[in-house]
Structures are given as structure tokens and as C-alpha cells.
Amino acid sequence: MSSQVREQSHDLFKSFKFSLFRTDRITGFLITLLKGVLLIFLVNSVSLVVYSAFTTQTTWFRCPECPSPTRSIVQHCETFNVSGENIEPTNISHIVFGIGGSMNTWKDRRHYGELWWQPNITRGYVWLDEQPHSNAAWPQNSPPYRVSEDWTRFKFSSSRSGVRIARIVLESFRLRLPNVRWFVMGDDDTVFFTDNLVSVLAKYDHRQMYYIGGNSESVEQDVMHSYGMAFGGGGFAISYPLAAELVKVLDGCLDRYYTFYGSDQRIWACVNEIGVSLTEEQGFHQIDIRGDPYGLLAAHPVAPLVSLHHLDYVKPLFPSQNQLDSLRTLIQAYRADPARTLQQSFCYQPKHKWSVSISWGYTAQIYPWLLSASELAMPLQTFQTWRSWANGPFTFTTRWMSADPCEQPVVYFLDRVTVVGEGETLTSYKRHEFEAGKKCDRSTYAPVMSVHRIIVSAFTMDPWEWKMAPRRHCCDISKNLKNKEMHVRIRHCELSETITT
Ligand SMILES: *[C@@H]1O[C@H](CO)[C@@H](O)[C@H](O)[C@H]1NC(C)=O
Ligand SMILES: *[C@@H]1O[C@H](CO)[C@@H](O)[C@H](O)[C@H]1NC(C)=O
Ligand SMILES: *[C@@H]1O[C@H](CO)[C@@H](O)[C@H](O)[C@H]1NC(C)=O
């Protein structure tokens, strides 16, 4: 019986299927026809979209590598070598700087600009809010200036100059300077270390859309603005294709974000509309801190030093000099070995069990006890936050700086830089004089007190090393003192070497 039922239902199904097929034959044919028509439409519109996207894009994106702008667009892109292998490395000539200045601030701040600007080598302009007085000649060593075009038509709520400075990237782009790969923005009190800036930018494919910089050291600032924002004082870089996109949308975008405070926040918002986010590089320093930047610069991350900012707001880098002279001293070391500037190496003096830390070209420290590598790499907190002058938090871990001189390192500052022979330097660090009552009289400190100077020898660091995975360099300390001098040699670490081996 059960088999009968099965047979019956089977028949039923068969007839049902048959009738379904029959009645659907015509509609099926219609559907196929419709599908075909739709497909033709789809193919047509997709190719139209693709075609128009590429044509409009290429008229904007004139890649500097392409030999002749007069060639047709199609040829133009065929000659473009996508493998990138034939692209020459990025150098200083590929960068256009856009410095946000004003007549009011430039007369004092130009000294910062002139520290790093190299006439006829660095390209770009300081952008002013008004024409300089015609009777005063523009200083020869300053970057050339341009006056920002009328920006007053834009909405703003707190700072009108924010709009003007945000538009520097647009105005720089529209100058149509040849062979530009990067637009680098900075403030008029930003000090760039251009060789290292080149090393950093050379790591990236300038034919893609990049927004590169760093955020604020003070968490309160990042919370208020954004962790994802490149703070303008530390400087940031925008690749040519991103600038080309930004220029298209910027003016409309600026009106959308008129409530924002600074130019950097406006750029961040507009770059985000394009869908590009920040590529962080640790060598850009906004220096959103108060007090003494010593701890931060004595334990720089293992990354090339790209910029320093806000130097009028912190203590001079070298306590016995004013800020400008301090920078000149640091730059002297930088010229001898740009890639190594502020790079920290540390090692132990085995006989005395001392920890020794060198921040190359700046400072050295001796601790008459043993500290771990992670402690030595952690900045001593000699500073406060930017806005509230609080003891933190910062975007990195800090080490508490005790007020007790017996818990502090003995500190040395750079006093001489010598280039010896081929690719080697000698830097000398002299002991910092103690202020009255700030000296530790404990017997453990006495042997350190006999070290008046630390002499550091190092090979000149190849900038190419910054293209590889970063690794801190190792050092050795001579066993005995000579003439109250301790000798330290910085070198590449051995294959299986650690600080404790
Ligand atoms: C593109 O780069 C490759 C890889 O180096 C090279 O072999 C080739 O000749 C280049 N082509 C052109 C058209 O430059
Ligand atoms: C920079 O690279 C270009 C090639 O893109 C080269 O022509 C130029 O001479 C280089 N300039 C410097 C200063 O090295
Ligand atoms: C820069 O180049 C211009 C024109 O070639 C020249 O007149 C000027 O002296 C140069 N300046 C420096 C500082 O080399």
C-alpha cells in the first residue's frame, strides 16, 4: 500500500512538473530575453562608468614620471611603469613645502625656518596673510613667500587663519611645479630634518594616496581633536595623487567643517571624506608638551627624527644655551650623521654595574644601577601635558622623574662633534653641572662623578637602514676611564645579541 501511495504521488508530481514546464515556456523565453537586454545595458553602463572615471582621473592625476603631458591620456598611462622598479628614489627635489606663516609671526619665527631651509635645494613657500612691507627686503635665507589668495569668503567660527592655512595644499598644487611627489605642510615654527623626511617618504609609493604624519603627545589633545589626525605643527605629507583629489573637494569641504579650530583638523576631515586615513610615522613631533622636552628626546623611538615644533613653549634643549643655539648645536650633529640623530643606544658597564644610555647627538646618561631595556627606552617624564599642564596621560608610557637626585641619572650633554675619516663620527658629551643641592652625595654616585665626559664613536648610519625593519643599535663601554673620559662604541648588534648577553 505504501508503495502504491508512493507511485501515485510520483505520478502526481510528474504531471505537475510537466504542466508547470508547459505554462512557463513562454514566460521563460521572455525572462531570458529580458535578461539579455539587461546584460547589454549593464555592460554598457559599466564600461561608460569605467571610461569616464579613468578619463576624468587621468586629467587630474598627471603623474610626474610620465614623460610628456602633451601626449594623449591613453599613451600617458601605457608608458607608466606600474612595477615601479624604474622609478628613481625620492629625494629632496620631489618635495614642495607649504609653511603656514603670517606677517605677524614670521619676523620672529623665521629663525626656525632658516635653520633648515636650504635655498635652491628645498622647494616651496611660506604663505603669508598679507604682502610684506615693500621697504623691507625679504631675508635671503628665508623660504620665498607667497601671499594666500582671498580666503575670507569661507565660513569660520574660531580661527579665520585655519581656513587660509588649510588651503596652502591647494594653492601649492595649483602652482603646477614639475616633478612633485609630496606636499609637506608645516607651521612657521616647525623645524624639519629634511634628510630624514626624505628617508621616511622614500619608503612609500608616492603614486598612491598617502597622508603621513603624527598626532599629539598629549592624550587630551588627541581626544579633543583626533588620534587619526596629523597635527600640523609636527608637519605632515600628502602625496601628489591625494593632493589632486583633495584640491577637487577642498573648498566645499572647508565650508562643511567651518566649526573646526585649526587647519590641520580641516585637512584631516577632508582627507577622511576621500577615504584615506593617517599613516603614522614616529619622527614627526608636534611637541604638545610643557616644561622640559629632555626625557622625550633622550629616549626617541627607533625612527628617524623628522621634525620638532613648539620650541618657544618648552625649555631650551641644552640647558646652558637658548633655544635657537640649542637647535644649532643639535643640527651640527645632524649634519654629521642625519639618520642617527637622537637615536638611543644603551649598554651596561659591567665592572660598576652601571646603565648607560646615549641619545646620539644630544645627551648621555649614567645610572649607577641596572635598568632593564624597556625602562631605558621609556622617556623620563620631565614634562607636562599641553593644555592642562598635567602629569599625563601621554600617548606613550613615561617613567616617573624623581625629585631626589639620588634617584636620577647623571646627565651629559653634547659638546663636540667630529667626523673622523670615512663614515665615522666622534661625539663628546660633557657632564651637566649640578645646581646647588641637586647633587647626590651617596657613595654609589662617587665613581660616576669621576666621569667628566663620555666619548662616543659611531659609524655614519646609512639612511637606507630606515627602509628595513628598525632595530636599535648596540654599544660597548671601555673597561677603564682615561682622563676622566668614558669611551662608548655604537655598532650594529650581532645576530643573537641582546642587551643582557
Ligand atoms: C618597467 O620596469 C621593469 C622592471 O625593472 C623594467 O624591466 C622595464 O624595462 C620597465 N619598463 C619601462 C617601459 O620602462
Ligand atoms: C632627484 O631625483 C631626480 C630623478 O627623479 C634626479 O633627476 C635629480 O638629480 C635628483 N636630485 C637630487 C638633489 O638628488
Ligand atoms: C639660487 O639660484 C639663483 C638662480 O639660479 C641664484 O641667483 C642664487 O644666487 C642662488 N642662491 C643660493 C643661495 O645659492
UniProtKB/TrEMBL annotation:
<keyword id="KW-0472">Membrane</keyword>
<dbReference type="InterPro" id="IPR006740">
    <property type="entry name" value="DUF604"/>
</dbReference>
<dbReference type="Pfam" id="PF04646">
    <property type="entry name" value="DUF604"/>
</dbReference>
<keyword id="KW-1133">Transmembrane helix</keyword>
<protein>
    <submittedName>
        <fullName>Uncharacterized protein</fullName>
    </submittedName>
</protein>
<feature type="transmembrane region" description="Helical">
    <location>
        <begin position="26"/>
        <end position="54"/>
    </location>
</feature>
<keyword id="KW-0812">Transmembrane</keyword>
